[in-house]
Amino acid sequence: MYTTLYQYLIFHKQLILPGVGTIQLQRTSPQLDYSNKIFTAPSYHFKIDSRSDKPSKKFYEWLSQLLAITEWEAIKIVNDFSFGLKKNISLNGEVTWENVGVLRRDEKGSIILESPNIELESEGSVIAEKVIREKPDHPVLVGEIERASTEMEELLMESPSKRDYAWLIALVLTVAALMFVGWYFSEKGVNISSTGNQSVIKAK
């Protein structure tokens, strides 16, 4: 009967036994081990809550279908199992349930469960080293064009020098224009006629 009830416990994550309590499957989350630089694997253990000890109808239906018996017979089998379990705890001080743990009573008379941590082979530890890439290349969307991040970095590095070069040309042209205007007025003098057209139009 231990094996059958253990099967139900694994499938449904809990098992309620009348007069004993609810045995639940608990999962311990992975922990970060700084010294060894790993995430430890998650572990599992069972705990018991003696306050809840009334099985559901679905449990008895499942057991009756599995054993091909009536639901009433399933109820009787579970009650007999729970009675025998409590009796063995009282006589022997504790009962070892394979794969679940050791059941015993505490100072108050409540049934407690000492369950070992169970680690699954399929859920092993994971290395927790941070990977640092000096210049990771990734796609960047520029408008509607997708470019590589390194390509955009090169374009951005080149742009300031091109802008500086264009600004220098504009400055040189402005200075040259100012020099020409200054030379012109120094030759022609600063008056209204020097800026107008000096040609004479003769009437025919």
- The oligomeric status of these chains comes to single chain
| Series of H and E elements | HEEEEEHHEEEEEEEH
Range of strand content? 15-25%
- The overall number of domains is 2
Describe this structure in words.
This protein has 204 residues and is of the alpha+beta class. The chain folds into two domains: 2-127, no CATH class; 139-191. Helices cover 41% and strands 24% of the residues. The chain is built from four helices and twelve strands, in the order αβββββααβββββββα. The protein has helices at residues 2-12, 57-67, 71-92, 149-188, and strands at 14-17, 21-28, 32-33, 38-39, 43-49, 94-97, 101-105, 111-114, 118-119, 126-127, 139-142, 145-148. A four-stranded antiparallel beta sheet has the order 1-2-5-9. Helix 2 crosses helix 3 (71-92). The mean pLDDT is 77.
Question: Which key features would you list for this structure?
Answer:
4 helices, about 200 residues, three-stranded antiparallel sheet, 2 domains, alpha+beta
List the helices and strands and how they pair.
Elements: H1 2-12, E1 14-17, E2 21-28, E3 32-33, E4 38-39, E5 43-49, H2 57-67, H3 71-92, E6 94-97, E7 101-105, E8 111-114, E9 118-119, E10 126-127, E11 139-142, E12 145-148, H4 149-188
Antiparallel strand pairs: 1-2, 2-5, 3-4, 4-10, 5-9, 6-7, 7-8, 11-12
Concise overview:
With 204 residues, the chain is α+β, with helices and mostly antiparallel strands. 41% of the residues lie in helices and 24% in strands.
